[in-house]
Every structure is written in structure tokens, then in C-alpha cells.
Amino acid sequence: MVTESSIDVKKIWEILATVNDPEVPVLTVIDLGIVRDVQIKNDLVEIIITPTYSGCPAMDAIALDIKLKLSEAGYKNVKVISILSPAWTTDWMSEDGKQKLKAYGIAPPNAKQQVCHNDLFAPNEAVQCPHCNSYHTNRISEFGSTACKALYQCDDCKEPFDYFKCH
Amino acid sequence: MTPLIDYILHLADSTLILAQRNAEWCGHGPVLEQDIAITNISLDLLGQSRNFYQYAASLIGKDATEDSLAYLRTEREFKNCLLVEQPNGDWAQTILRQFFFSVYQQLLFIKLENSKDEQLAAIATKSLKEVNYHVRWSSEWVIRLGDGTAESKSRMIKAVDGLWTYTGELFEAASYELLCSTEALREGERAESESVGIDPSSLKEVWMKKTAEIFEEATLSVPENKFMQTGGKEGKHTEHLGYILTELQYMQRAYPDSTW
Predict the structure, then answer these.
(1) Which of A159, A162, B149, B208 has a CA 20 to 30 Å removed from the CA of A15?
(2) What span, in angstroms and rounded, lies between the C-alpha atoms of A108 and A163?
(3) pLDDT tens sequence across A19-67
(4) For chain A, how many structural domains are there in total?
(5) φ, ψ of residue A33 in degrees (nearest 5)
């Protein structure tokens, strides 16, 4: 049983680091950068999260998972609060997370200042193929299997791959 | 209902109805990648509408939820603009409808980011990142089809003819838009950028300029002085909205309070 005085914020963060994104299961919610704060109020644990995209259907599952994992560890009084501001950006993704994405076969997001522009028919940003490391890649579609990804193909190894797009 | 609640609902309704229209393409897109693109846009818009509905529900209080607002209001209560309820037609009509709406949304949210209402500002900032994608994607398609083959061009011209009459409404302030955007001015101490809402007439000039730019590249003509159909934002809709709501609200109407 966890008593009022024993709630350790560090312990909460450790548990959060075991909650995965249901759509990209190699990433934890910490890797994604969507956990913005943890607040302890007496025996109440408040987890502040922010959505990646407005319509991301994983957010409800993530909130449920956070409650479940904390409940298993004995924290029964948990509130998950979703905030919109400041808006999530891929710049909040951890370096560790980017490495894990690449190993999983998804090209990690490029740094934001490098690519976020609104020019029409802009040349493809240089995205490295997660399979053979070539930069000779082509965007097939700006929209992919989930809101956060675009579809690319490598011109060298010919493999199609997802790119976690800069946002 | 306060003007602020009506103001939030009109933003929620327009995004919900366009999300529903775009979702009709699911499994029917011209090619797989574009099928995925239009449904991704649908999902973004649905997410935006949920944020608006949740905020409106919190202000209304009592038993209001995002679901009751989306599923249990009638046509006359919906405040979406007429543009978004127009049928998908062919790909050209869908693309053009998206382009007109996304450019309007982009200009609106750039201003709404500075709303003195913190939650509206937060939703605007969040949504704008997504809308920027939509503007780029739909602009490219307008150009690709307008400056494409004889067939694609004739379809774009037909789309412009059919949809132009619904664009005027975007910039004609409904009563609640006026009340939300002038409140601060009446206090006499804040600039318009710090009011709660935005007077949409202030967006018209830039919207026309952007549209003219893209149309020029697409070798399309901007129609002049055409009659503008209005009323949606005050609850007076074309016959299409009833059919959309019939489908969208079916489950809650047939099985009240059912949940997943």
C-alpha cells in the first residue's frame, strides 16, 4: 500500500517510462515527450499529458494505460489531465526514442527548424532510410498509416518506410 | 447559450461536418495514398472538433458532453458554414472545398492564437500545425488539376462554379462572431487581436489574395461578383445537412445513451 507521505515523484516517472505508445510500441510516453508534468497533491497523483495530433486516437488508450500501470504499482488515486498548450512538437522526442524508432524501421523526425515550411511542391526533405542509411529517398505521400507519419521509399534499397514527420 | 458558446460551437460544427464528408472517401480515394491523405485530414478535423465541443460542453455545464453536442442537436442548431456540408462530388470538388476551407481556417487560427480566451488560443495553436499541412496539400492539388489535362481542368472549372457561392459566408460575421470580436473593442482598451473571437470579415482580403495566387498558378479564373448563399452559421442549411446528420447521429438516435 502506498501511503500519503511515501509518494515519490521519481518513482512515478519510472513507472511512466514503462507505458508504451499503442501505435508505435517501441516508444514510451516519455520518449514521445507527451508527459508534460507530474504533480502530487496529498494522495492524488496528477499526470499532465498533451496530444501529438488533435485527432490522435491513441490518446485515450494512453491515458487508460497510465492509470492501469500506476494502479498496479499501488497508486489508486490518479488523474490524467490533457492540456493543449504548449502544443506538442517532435523536438520533444528523446534522443533515445529516435534511436529506438530507427531500429524499429521508422525514420525518426528531422530537427524542426530544418524542415517545417509551407512551400508548395517543395523538394523532399533529406530523410535517411532506416534500413540502409541512404539519403536517396523519396516521399510517396505526406500522409501515412497514422497522423504522425509520412510514407517514403528508398531509391537505393527500394524498401518503403514510414517517416515520423517533423511537427 | 452565451455568444461565446455559440462561437465555439460554430467552429466545432464546421470541423465536424467536413470531417464527416471527407470520411465518406474512406476506401474510395482515387489512389491509395490520397485515400489515406483525405482520411488523415478527416481525422485531424475530427480531433479539432472534439477539442471545441469539449470546451463548449465545459462552459454549458449540466449534462452537456462532447457527444451530446455532436449527436443530439438538430439541423437548425448546427452552425457550420454551408461550404462544408456540400457533397463530395468528384475529387476536384472535394479538393476545392478543402482548399477554400483550409485557407480560411489557417487565417482564422493565426489570429485566434492571440485570443484572450486561453483555451481557444490553445486549440488554435494546436490546430494550426495540422491546417498548414492541409493548405499545402490542397493547394498542390488545385494546381495539379487546374493546370493538368483538359479533363481535370474542366472538372476544376465545374467545381469552382458550384462552390464559389458558398465562400462569401465564411467572411460574413454571424451575430455571435460579431459579439465575440467587438466585446473587447467596446471596452476601449484592447486591440482586436486581444478579443475573444475574430470578426471574419477581417480575413477576406488575405483569403482572396491567396486564392487568386493559387488560381493563377492553376490557370483558373476567380469568379467575379457572384451571388453568395449564406445562412448556415445561423442554422439555415442546404438540404444536404439533414442527410449528413441522419447518418452521423444514427446510433445515438436509435439506441439512446449507447456506449462503446
Answers:
(1) A162
(2) 6
(3) 999 988 999 999 999 999 999 998 899 999 999 999 888 888 999 999 9
(4) 2
(5) 80, 25
> What is the CATH class of B3-254?
mainly alpha
> Which chain A residues touch B53 with a CB distance below 8 Å?
none
Same domain, A62 and A112: no
Helix (H) or strand (E) holding A152: strand A149-154
Contact at 8 Å (CB) between A85 and B118?
A: yes
A167 in reach of chain B (CB within 8 A): yes
Nearest to B10 by CA among B62, B69, B72, B89: B69
Minimal Cβ distance to A120: which of B37, B119, B136? B136
Give the pLDDT confidence of B217-239 residue by residue, as tens digits.
999 999 987 899 999 999 999 99
CA distance B211 to B206: 8
Regarding whether A8 and A44 lie in a shared domain, the answer is yes
Confidence at A165, pLDDT banded by 50, 70, 90: confident
State whether ipTM is beyond 0.90: no
CATH at residue A61? 3.30.300.130
Same domain, A78 and A99: no
What tens digit of pLDDT does each residue of A104-119 get? Answer: 999 999 876 555 566 7
Same structural domain, A94 and A75:
no
A123 interface with B at CB cutoff 8 Å: no
Domain ranges in chain B are 3-254
Domain with A68 in it: 4-82
**What pLDDT is recorded for position B192?**
47
Q: How far is CA B155 from CA B145, B159, B228, in A?
A: 8, 6, 21
Q: How many CA atoms lie within 13 A of B70 on its CB side?
A: 27
Cell 488515486 locates to A77
**Last residue in a domain, options A27, A51, A82:** A82
Q: What is the pTM of this model?
A: 0.92
Q: Which residues pair with A78 in a beta bridge?
A: A45
Q: Mean pLDDT over residues B212-221, rounded?
A: 97
CA angle B118, A65, B122 (to 5 degrees): 10
Residues A117 and A143 in one domain: yes
B98 in A contact zone (CB under 8 Å): no
Which residue from B minimizes the CA distance to A54? B47
What pLDDT score was predicted for residue A98?
94
Residues of chain A contacting residue B130, judged by C-beta atoms under 8 Å apart: 53-54
Parallel, antiparallel or unpaired: strands A106-107 and A160-164: parallel
